[in-house]
Amino acid sequence: MNFWHVFGLESADTGEKLLFFITGGALLALAAIGIRSPQVLNDTFNEAFGWVLTYFGWWFMLLGMVLLVFSTYMVFSRYGHIRIGGQDAEPEFDLFSWLAMVFTVGYSGSIIIWGVGEPISIVNSPPPEPLPVTGASIEALALAFMFIHEVFPGLAMWYPPFALAFGLIIYTRGTDSYKFSSMLKVFLDDDRYKLLYWTVDLAALIAIIGGVAAAIGFSAQVFAALLDTVFGVPPTLFTYGLFGVLGLVFLGDVWLGLRSGIRNAARITVVLMLVTFALLLAVGPTLFTINLGLDAGGVWLNNMFRLSLYSAPTAAGNWPQQWTSFWWAWWAAWGLFVGSFVARVSKGRTIRETFVCLVVIPGMLLWIQHSIVGGWVLAPGYVGPVSDAFASGGIPASIATAVTLTPLAPLLGVLLILVIAGYVVTSLDSAVYILSSITLGTEEPNARNRAWWGVLLSFLGVMTLELPVFDAMQAFPTVLALPFTLFLLAIAYASYVTAREYYREESTLANEDTLITSANTDSSLPQGQDDDD
Q1: pTM of the entire structure?
Q2: Angle (CA) 28 269 393, round 5°
Q3: What is the pLDDT of residues 24-38, one digit of tens each?
Q4: Which of 210, 264, 427, 464 could bridge to 476 as Cys pair (CB 3.0-4.6 Å)?
Q5: Which residues on adjacent β-strands are paired with residue 83?
Q6: Taking a C-beta distance cutoff of 8 angstroms, is the pair 432, 453 a contact?
Q7: How far apart, in Å, are the Cα atoms of 174 and each of 11, 171, 179, 301?
Q8: What does the DSSP assignment read for 241-281?
Q9: DSSP 83
Q10: Cα Rg for the chain, rounded, in angstroms?
Q11: Which fold has domain 19-506?
């Protein structure tokens, strides 16, 4: 059998083959170091993480606000009516499937993992004095920060620019290659820039891997904690087994493809998620949850921009950067493949419709979900034991402890494992779909290449089980996404140029059609008679 055929690279050019093997080799090297010397990898990434936050935390905050202004303008201006794929494009997926794929791919298990981790961490280690919001309880402030980071403006900052770029440039304008570098050709369409194009695609692949690695790592350690604390089974062995099962499900999805595999996995995950959160609201501290969610919602909406730009310049340390800058870096890494995947499944929808599906509807769901999770772990009777578990074992231990304190703990534990597993599968599905697409330059990559990307990413899942502390995973997206952030401004500009040119062309064609119709109408009247007769 042909060597290139085995890797799904038989139609790839030299640059695409190099992209695959260089990125895959770097990924394997990272996994090997993490498995053999986890403490070394942990220390190295944490040092890099601290350096990036200290010197570039401000950059992520500023960039986020610039992208928020850009996304808002593009969606609510005249360009919001542009249809992804052209004005004659038809939607490929029904409404529920479309929403399910966007939601499960875009928001992953962080709803549960950081929905517990961030509020409980902030309550135990609050912002330095003076607090960014006075008069609010620390519980409400902690949950308000969670809303800032994973509801709004976080959603509107980081996902829409990528979705707009792919939707407008790749699908509406049209391009010869399905790559991130194709967006540069809007204003740098010259063979002299081939090396730059290749470098951009390499940086994009590495940034995507950083975001996916963090998500897999967080999920793996939460699996282990739930299995150990809730069910009393050997965590490492069973977590490896669980990842093996997920690998089989993933390979099945790869074989079935986008329409049957990823779509069905997303639909099942959404149903499980709705059942799980309904159960948690019913059996948890319901009244406290509702009241805290409303209180925190008020703090959030009344202080949105204050909390988004909070940098505490006169305080020691980098508390705001540890949260906001970390989140924005993770959004940037995650948004690379989420935005491109969203554009892929949104063909036939307008920019404004895509924004509603990507930001507005998920934003409402996320506000409800984070209110439920935050109220659960911050309630009296829960917050003390969960805080103690957090101090000794980090976020995974705090989640497991909260489950054991809740009625119907075994059922809730099973549902949480299934929901997080569903997010892992759908995120991995979409990530390898986009990794393979960018590598091969096609929106329909072959199953063999996608499977290899899945195998490579699975090594990261194994490696993260060996890391000594949960916090090490925070460094992956923050460090690996930094080199790619300048490209975000370039694709935002390219998206605007593309939308402007497309709008002008459509307007010109519409005017010409009107003139032709008017001329035909006039010529059809009897000679010597006008339409006033």
Answers
A1: 0.84
A2: 60
A3: 888 788 778 877 887
A4: 210
A5: 350
A6: yes
A7: 21, 5, 12, 39
A8: HHHHHHHHHHHHHHHHHIIIIIHHHHHHHHHHHHHHHHHHH
A9: B
A10: 24
A11: Amino acid/polyamine transporter I (1.20.1740)
